[in-house]
Amino acid sequence: MINPPDGTKWKVFWKNINGEIWFQKGWKTFTQNYSLQNGCFVVFKYKEGTSELDVLIIGQNGVEIDYDSSCDTSDDGNENLEHSDDESVEILNEWHYPKKAKQLSTLASTRPHKKVKGEIEKNSQRTTSLNKPKETRAREVAYEFISSNPFFTILINPANLAANRLSIPNLKGIIENKEANVNLQIGKRSWNLKLLCCYNKKSERRLSAGWFLFVRESGLQAGDVCVFELINKKDLVFEVHVF
């Protein structure tokens, strides 16, 4: 049993191979839930007289992770307890569906088409005071975004920049409800990430392994507004527009 500081308990099977302990069944689920990847540091402390290990997880940024921001990737409830909801993410717009799609969401936007984004930005500069905070200007421009593809909008805050995961809206009806690999693109650059299912009160999804690298290499800043546009449903490719 592996015990993180968040009070959950994870059943992980192990095997002794040539005097070394190798984690097997259950370990993959644990690592995915806490977004463990190369560069993370895990400290194990054996609880004498038991078959349990207490663990501490240090993220790629050298800081102990926020365990409460993790999510339960198992829906049977046998491997771990329910985690707290992540309140650090501000989702400005839920999924928007294309007007010509077979399934038209009541949230479908009536804003101008993406093709006139340049005109929108130009007009926005005319009507928006340059003295307004970056966050306010970014919101105004992002709210004018629309596309023939499904998309959602998220405001980036300092917690999102330091974390190794990002909560996003539930993808029900858009993407199959299972773990998957996704690709984020900005211009000609691309990043591969893991998409997890979170069986908590919000039934949300999370971009996990690879998020921290995306943040660092893309130059995201607090106050940026990101529009995630699903441009390839088959291969799960998102074009990320940063305002």
UniProtKB/TrEMBL annotation:
It is found in: Nucleus. Its main location: nucleus. GO terms for cellular component: nucleus. It comes from the Eukaryota. Keywords: DNA-binding, Nucleus, Transcription, Transcription regulation. Pfam families: B3. Signal peptide: none annotated. Residues 1-61, 151-243 form the TF-B3 domain. PROSITE patterns: B3. SMART domains: B3. One of its GO terms (molecular function) is DNA binding. It comes from Pisum sativum (Garden pea). The keyword Transcription regulation applies. CDD domains: B3_DNA. This is TF-B3 domain-containing protein.
